[in-house]
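hey all, quick one before standup. I had two proteins in the batch that finished overnight and I want to keep them in one place so we stop losing track of which output belongs to which input. First protein below, input sequence then structure tokens straight from the run.
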Amino acid sequence: MGAKQIMAVHTCWKIVLIDDEEDIREVMAIALQEAGFTVKTAADGGEGLQLCAEILPQIVMTDIRMPGMDGLQVLKTVKKAYQDVEVIVVTAFGEMDLAIRALQLDASDFLTKPISDEALDLALKRAMERFTSKRQLREYAALLEKEKAATSQELLKAIRFQRNLIESSMDGILGCDDRHTVVIYNHSMEQLLGWTKPEVLHKMSLKQFFFDDELKRFRDDLSADAYGGANRLVIYDTHLKAISGQVIPVQVSATRLFNQDLETGLVCFFRDLREIRKLERELSDQARILHQEKMMSLGRLAASVVHEINNPLSGVLDYLRRMKRILGQGQSAADRQEKFQGYLDLAENETSRCSQIISSKRCKSTSFCSAASF
């Protein structure tokens, strides 16, 4: 298991692993414990949340498909109850829509079964980095709130820490003053939009990173209550404009800053959604291809039915025509009765054959549609 490569010194890192399949829980738990993690397992969402309250883990790994409380409900509950805990969701192949929804709810990553060593390594490292960054940022904010920087040395140290924290963030961080001029612009923003820090700081304004219609919507929703309260946006989808003119889909959390009821600035945290949008397009393409294949198979099935019932129907039609000719020839009633009885028996058999063919094809069609829908 590749998780062994994730520094075994992290013995203080605790993981709650939630999966309703016992074999998967046991195998994953052994691998993570060998990598140095403390692991507690749960068979359902309720038990997993109880473990979170007891051991306060840094990371939760949860399957999406579970009876009772599913993985998305676990994700929502954990994010609401524990600010710093990172959640990795595990999906089955073909559940990309659920994986995308999990990322939109701020899951740190998703893994598809069967889980590869490389994917597990990357997901755990990303979760650990996000947890550490958020914890450091919160501790730094608490430090400033308590005004513990009693000396200029401590103040300079806090400033250096702040700059390092902003620059190392995996999310793009952009801050503006009260005139909307950019005063904070980290490395992730440079990678996201293409403008360099010297080009942006104290020279460009917030509006230059938005298209006109998106800027108006962003400002209107920031002033409204729909996305986290007035003067705040939480997990809000919008688009930014790159230096090349490219449209960049992003998810943003933003808040206006105030000092004694006077607005002093705005800070925004941007998350690149291009990979999520790519997954959404792939999911849509898969659904369209599946529908086309389904229609083609149904067409072939219909053609097969027509071919197979054509012969017995032709026989029935032939016997009916013979009976009409006999009636026109004026044969005796005794002769007609004997011939008609034989023809009617044959017509009945051919009609039953048609019914059996149609019933057989209908069962195949029902099975195919059920499989395609699944």
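OK second protein, same deal, sequence then tokens:
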Amino acid sequence: MPPKQQRIRVEVDGQSLELSNLDKVLYPAAGFTKGEIINYYTQVAPVLLPHLRDRALTRIRFPNGVDGQSFFEKNKPGGTPDWVRVETLPVPGSTKDRETIDYVVADDLPTLVWLANLAALELHTPQWRVGEDPDLMVVDLDPGAPAGLRECCAVAVLMRDRLAEDGLTAYPKTSGKKGMQLSCPIAGTQPAEEVSAYAHRIAEELERGNPKSITSKMTKRLRTGKVFIDWSQNSAAKTTVAPYSLRAQAQPTVSTPLTWEEVEEGGARAFAPDEVLERIEELGDLLEDLLTPGPSLPS
């Protein structure tokens, strides 16, 4: 763009925003630009925003693209517009009562577009809404090479069936990288420590029954050829990549909800933004039921 056109002012749902460097390539291998990133997040907003609403947002920003340096951002950045929702919350796990973070909460499309313009490619959320106990239980399925997504699918089915015995319904999605996540809506009446302990117990149980393919232990050297069931995602200090968030790979990929039929067939794979938008048009939001509270976890 000529210099005078590198910044443009737009109106999004009644809010005035300045967008910059829309032609800047942030995924060099794919030639995927900041303008295309903003366009993707604008189109996916109707299904993405309900999963972000009321959740303190952690962003991973890539101002010089996925091949450049990145940084995690929890605090609101300088120059945050006054119409962006900000919640001052205690630092999870902090032992000092006065340690707080001014979190951005992305409840609306203007905030989402503003974040995309800041090259906040990845959006990560906790398992709880502001001021509440966790309303989601999440397990991350992380394959150790040579295991991959196909092996994650097999473990996901085992985990789904085991959780169903306790009255929990699991919903699968790709991480957008090498693994998967399963999420279960829960009642929101139990602290993170209880949720994490339950997930840990189930992961250990599945490991005992499938020691050649599953590990519940953090030690990386024990993961070779196995799928690590990361139960620790339920810690109050942890976040998980949001459904429909972009991921910082060489090619733009998305954390994508899956059908159980796809998982049972071992068909999980990386999906591109245009594919995800097509899936939404065909299937709707496969994770919509996560927005409704589920049962309490067994004691």
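Flagging for whoever picks this up: The domain at 136-291 is CATH 3.30.70.3300 (Alpha-Beta Plaits). The helical segments are 34-52, 109-117, 149-165, 192-209, 260-264, 273-283.
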